[in-house]
Task: structure prediction
Amino acid sequence: MVTQEAIGIIKPDTIAEAAARRRARQRREGAIEGGLFLAALTSVAATVTIIAVLLSESIGFFRTVPLTDFFTDTLWTPLFANPHYGILPLLAGTLVTSGVGLLVAIPLGTVAAIYLSEFSSSRVREVMKPTLELLGAVPTVVYGYFALIVVTPALQYLWPDLPGFNMLGPGIVIGIMIMPFVISLSEDAMRAVPMVLREGSYAMGATRLQTAWRVVVPAATSGLVAAYVLGISRAVGETMVVAIAAGQNPNLTWNPLEPAATITAYIVQVALGDLPHGSIGYQSIFAAGLVLAVMTFAFNILGHMMRKRFREVY
Result:
């Protein structure tokens, strides 16, 4: 016996049910899409709000302090009787400690990523990578006291005249702290390189080291740059390590063996004080924070340009 379903006849109630299911599915998809849009909008709104707060508070500061004095004065003493508002000492301290950290994290992190990606066995990788990533879970205040109590005394064996507060020890610890980010992202970028490139290199007679250094690393340059930019941003914005171990005396010096204050350390120092809202001393932390935000934004723009360039090449 031939049924209605066999000859393709669909009942009206079946058509209505299918249309209802389709509308319900569209509503669910619309709700999910709206939730994803709100999540993305939240991050953008938070960024815009932070920039707006920094600008609104900094405008009052720069009405009192000229930009020329802010960027050319070599003294930063906003809390003294004779205040000076030159950002250069804080900027120098931030760049020196971040530079020392990057000199530690980038070479060691890249070498470790090459080993995990190209030379280690899967068992070793499964143990080492989570262990390295655990370093990112250590509170930064612990890193700060580690720099002050362990790293600095160890460095004083090499430089007996090294003061207890200096930029070298915190810089080294910052490098250790950001190494997990560099290693994890770099290793992921290298493992994403197609195996056909490695096989072609081996077919030409290259060794594993030559293949890793001359084929895999150049092909993964876009991901490596992203890892380095994240490390730079993390190093520039570090607070507790430098606040504890580098000192809080603004000192215009490029010598990492001397103590100095960074932008973040000054913000912490003033934020813990008792300054009236709207005073020039209170507004100075927003001006310093604005400089820090511009620095981080510039590093990210530079990283984006480099990623785009190397992605086109490779």
Q: What stands out?
A: The chain has twelve helices and no strands. Residues 15-64 form one domain. The chain has a mean pLDDT of 84.
